[in-house]
């Protein structure tokens, strides 16, 4: 009875990022004499058995342009603020006063236009939204001109601050971060006692990648929130520390500290980020808050708060998703250089990610298997590694990746054909409990079929794990069992497996 070797790889392990061999096309014969990434004991066993048978450049440029635009907004707000802070000893000249009144009235008329727009049933929601925004912008233009002509009119100042707040709300809703930041900067200069304005401005700068400005405004939001808490104490209660603490909006306080933590993380301020994390943990109000902190803690602590390494890992993953595999792999190799990573656990993950790229996309299977063997040895031999293995959520993915790489390298050797080169890779894949190890047991049994005593244990284990096999592979396993048992003159058990083979054929037919 002649059995064909499997001529296909496994379409599995998407989570491990491994693309497996699929082709059965014949190739020029070659011999494999060295086996990278294999144990010497495995190679010796095979010889014995064989006697009988990785922030890219474009992203950095975009971030810089956004940061530059943020600085321009700050400068523009300062220029208008200089007008608002004009020497109060000066007086507006008569003509300027008249023009200022005219502009004020035009601004108010633009606000009145909003009421007419909102009651116009003939407009679509989008048309109405645009018309309201245009009216607000006209009102802003008139009132800013009025302020420039007469900086001392309190009524104009109040109307302008109202316009700024309305515009900020609309720009934030539409995610026009630059526009929102511009009006919020002026609103804060006119009314700096509202903590929420600083928080909204911090959000705008974060979306503009101006992280230092974002951090500064969230710090100001927290400061104003705490400093104005006494004003929130009910009039019928005394101003005590307890009452002031109770008057603070605890959810807002958590968010302001949380976003300070994020800002410090993005700026790679490790110590400050740790302090803010601890403060936020004490302020967390509910499971959602704690879940947010848990997520960012895992990110920051990937390599013991080596924030630069965490960001680099994320950037390299982006390169991989964009199919820039060589660039990603080069980056992972840089991370693996001495001094760039603090923890051995992070090094194993980087080796795994690099090995996936080498094996699946860069035609470097030998290097990939060597890297994965280093990962396996770390978890097998290192005492600290074994302790980490208990909580390492990626460990099974490492094991599966190593098993798949060895198995598919064995299949590649069979296609040459090089049975002696294939056997040690199949055996090495059986050194770990990977997700489809039954397939490797089957391939070893096929290679050793000329010696039933050696083939039988592998065939039995393949059948024991038959849920990992395809229907055809189960039939192949049963054929080996029948043939090996007949040659051992174990006819009763051979008949049992022959009956199972008959049932399997009917089921697959």
Walkthrough of the structure:
- The protein is mostly helical and 509 residues long.
- It has a domain of 150 residues: Alpha Horseshoe (Serine Threonine Protein Phosphatase 5, Tetratricopeptide repeat).
- It is built from 23 helices and no strands.
- Helix 10 packs antiparallel against helix 11.
Quickly list its features.
509 residues; 23 helices; elongated; mainly alpha; Serine Threonine Protein Phosphatase 5, Tetratricopeptide repeat; 71% helix
Low-confidence stretches: 1-9, 11-34, 76-97
Beta content: under 5%
Outline: elongated
Helix proportion: over 70%
CA(first)-CA(last) distance: 20 Å
What's the architecture of the domain at 67-216, going by CATH?
Alpha Horseshoe
Radius of gyration: 35 Å
Question: Briefly, what is this?
Answer:
By secondary structure, the chain is mainly α. It is built from 23 helices and no strands.
List the helices and strands and how they pair.
Layout: H1 40-50, H2 57-84, H3 94-118, H4 125-149, H5 154-173, H6 177-190, H7 195-207, H8 211-227, H9 241-247, H10 250-266, H11 270-283, H12 287-300, H13 307-321, H14 325-336, H15 344-360, H16 365-381, H17 383-389, H18 395-414, H19 419-429, H20 437-447, H21 452-464, H22 471-487, H23 491-508
Helix pairs in contact: 1-19, 2-6, 3-4, 4-5, 5-6, 6-7, 7-8, 8-10, 10-11, 10-12, 13-14, 14-15, 15-16, 16-17, 16-18, 18-19, 19-20, 20-21, 20-22, 21-22, 22-23
């Amino acid at each position: 009875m002649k059995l064909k070797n499997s001529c296909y790889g496994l379409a599995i392990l998407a989570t491990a990022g491994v693309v497996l061999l699929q082709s059965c096309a014949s190739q020029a014969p070659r011999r494999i004499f060295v086996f990278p990434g294999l144990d010497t004991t495995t190679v010796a066993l095979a010889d014995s058995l064989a006697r009988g048978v990785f922030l890219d450049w474009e992203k950095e440029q975009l971030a810089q342009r956004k940061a530059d635009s943020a600085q321009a907004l700050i400068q523009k707000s300062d220029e208008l603020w200089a007008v608002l802070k004009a020497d109060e000893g000066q007086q507006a000249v008569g003509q300027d006063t008249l023009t200022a009144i005219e502009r004020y009235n035009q601004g108010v008329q633009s606000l009145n236009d909003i009421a007419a727009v909102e009651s116009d049933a003939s407009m679509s929601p989008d048309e109405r939204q645009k018309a309201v925004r245009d009216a607000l912008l006209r009102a802003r233009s008139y009132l800013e001109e009025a302020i420039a002509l007469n900086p001392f009119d309190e009524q104009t100042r109040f109307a302008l601050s109202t316009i700024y707040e309305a515009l900020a709300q609309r720009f934030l809703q539409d995610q026009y971060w630059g526009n929102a930041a511009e009006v919020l900067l002026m609103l804060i200069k006119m009314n700096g006692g509202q903590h929420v304005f600083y928080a909204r401005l911090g959000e705008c700068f974060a979306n503009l990648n101006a992280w230092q400005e974002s951090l500064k405004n969230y710090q100001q939001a927290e400061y104003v929130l705490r400093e104005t808490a006494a004003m929130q104490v009910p009039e019928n209660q005394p101003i005590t520390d307890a009452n002031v603490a109770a008057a603070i909006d605890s959810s807002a306080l958590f968010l302001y500290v949380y976003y300070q933590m994020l800002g410090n993380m993005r700026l790679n301020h490790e110590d400050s980020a740790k302090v803010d994390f601890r403060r936020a943990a004490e302020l967390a109000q509910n499971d959602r808050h704690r879940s947010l902190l848990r997520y960012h803690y895992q990110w920051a602590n990937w390599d013991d708060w080596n924030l630069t390494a965490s960001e680099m890992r994320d950037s390299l993953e982006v390169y991989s998703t964009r199919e820039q595999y060589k660039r990603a792999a080069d980056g992972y190799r840089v991370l693996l250089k001495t001094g760039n990573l603090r923890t051995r656990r992070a090094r194993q993950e980087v080796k795994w990610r690099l090995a996936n790229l080498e094996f699946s996309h860069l035609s470097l299977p030998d290097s990939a298997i060597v890297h994965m063997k280093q990962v396996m040895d770390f978890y097998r031999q290192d005492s600290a590694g074994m302790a980490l293995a208990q909580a390492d959520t990626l460990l099974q993915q490492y094991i599966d990746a190593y098993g798949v790489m060895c198995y598919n390298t064995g299949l590649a050797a069979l296609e040459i054909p090089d049975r002696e080169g294939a056997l040690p890779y199949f055996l090495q894949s059986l050194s770990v409990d990977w997700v489809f190890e039954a397939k490797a047991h089957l391939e070893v049994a096929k290679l050793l079929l000329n010696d039933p005593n050696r083939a039988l244990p592998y065939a039995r284990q393949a059948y024991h794990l038959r849920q990992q096999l395809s229907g055809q592979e189960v039939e192949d396993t049963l054929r080996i069992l029948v043939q090996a048992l007949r040659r051992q003159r174990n006819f009763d058990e051979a008949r049992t497996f022959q009956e199972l083979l008959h049932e399997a054929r009917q089921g697959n037919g």
